[in-house]
Amino acid sequence: LYNDTVMDHFMNPRNVGELENPDGTGVYGSPVCGDMMQVQVKIEDDIIKDAKFKTFGCGSAIASSSMATEMIIGKPVEEALEITNKTIIDELGGLPPVKVHCSVLADHAIKSAIYDYAQKN
Amino acid sequence: LYNDTVMDHFMNPRNVGELENPDGTGVYGSPVCGDMMQVQVKIEDDIIKDAKFKTFGCGSAIASSSMATEMIIGKPVEEALEITNKTIIDELGGLPPVKVHCSVLADHAIKSAIYDYAQKN
Ligand code: FES
């Protein structure tokens, strides 16, 4: 059902936790399954220096957020905003169709964290 | 959002894994979120001697299955079949309404494992 990349990011998720002084925090709840995702970002000179996520969500949500945070760290904010749940799924090498909503959770939480930063600045 | 019992069963789930020679194996996929749950049971003299679960599901699914397997181990098959997702949620001290479908996953996978055993015997 799940490929090796998805399993790796599920079993050894990157960037789990919370940041001490986040510049932006985003929370998003899935209307499909009710799961919540929190993403926090550290931003300096418009570059995403660090990102962490926290969820009670399923394996696909964990794998998607692990991959998505890896994708945005080191990127300018503008480029990070171009990431969609489709590009997350592509990087993961695919997700079963029923689990697409889990990658949307990661996508939306990241965008909401960046908007939180933008509003504060 | 989640009480201490739910968090405990999520952080330290009981009975995770697979049995070596299961007497029954049940798999159930949630139509709500797409998550899957596998439950295996060891049955001797109509008593559930052991049970293990495996899931890619969310924290609520993990907590529900951890609690549900604890509830059936040591019970006669007939009593185990009386367990519903409502009794699992009661034992957990409650789940948010949006997460009720995750406890259904545990309930159905257990029943399907017992039916698998019954069909083989
Ligand atoms: S959201 Fe799928 S099992 Fe909980």
TrEMBL record, chains A, B:
GO terms for biological process: iron-sulfur cluster assembly. It comes from the Bacteria. Residues 2-121 form the NIF system FeS cluster assembly NifU N-terminal domain. One of its GO terms (molecular function) is iron ion binding. This is Fe-S cluster assembly scaffold protein NifU. It comes from Hornefia porci. The chain holds residues 3 to 123 of 147 of the full protein.
